[in-house]
Amino acid sequence: MKSIAVLASGRGSNFQAVIDKITEGSINAEIICLITDNPDAYSIKRAVNAGIPAKVIDYRSFKSRDEYNISLCQAMKEINPDLFVLAGYMRLLDKKTAGEFKDRMINIHPALLPSFTGLHAQRQAIDYGVKIAGCTVHFVDEGMDSGPIILQRVVPVYFDDDEDTLAERILKEEHIALPEAVRLFCSDKIKINGKKVKIL
Ligand code: GRF
Prior knowledge:
The protein is built from 6 helices and 9 strands. By secondary structure, the protein is α/β, with parallel strands linked by helices. It has a single domain (2-199), classed as Formyl transferase, N-terminal domain (Rossmann fold). The strands form 2 sheets. Strands 3-2-1-4-5-6-7 form a 7-stranded mixed β-sheet. Helix 2 links the parallel strand 2 and strand 3. Helix 1 (13-23) packs parallel to helix 6. It binds 5-O-phosphono-beta-D-ribofuranosylamine. 5-O-phosphono-beta-D-ribofuranosylamine binds at residues 8, 10-14, 87-88, 108-110, 171, 174. Residues 8, 10-14, 87-88, 108-110, 171, 174 line the site of 5-O-phosphono-beta-D-ribofuranosylamine.
């Protein structure tokens, strides 16, 4: 059975989707820790409800970004799971941390990468006028939302959509995509070949 640590900064609905799939027995894994940078994150409540230890590394309590990054990386090394899942973790990992856990850290992004990286991806999609949008689960590398893509799911964009209506439509797909990618990883069904990911 694989061990998982989840990083989340907020609401944690993606975190919950993974918890639920594990609980119902579709994923052969155990979540051994939640790490959050935000002491007010609703994700903490979800962890407590599921009996998962939550570790708060409060970004605002550090003097500098470097000190925060060192502390985060240290905690991640100590927990040392088979897989890190970034589920709404809203900070860019520093290059050292990203490099350290390469090939065993995945992220969910609410856009069809490589389009619309970074924050407010759904708003970027609306502003650009694209007709389809979606979400991407990918490995984390040293760049921003740039690692090998595991899977993507697509939704239509309607003329009257705003950021919120599109985000809601995409979120439903995120809740399918992220647990599915975790399931594939945990059953050794993923092979990385350069930029490309093969689903075995
Ligand atoms: C999701 O849209 C995720 O893709 C993005 O932030 C949002 C987090 O939602 N990175 P939640 O905390 O999982 O509910």
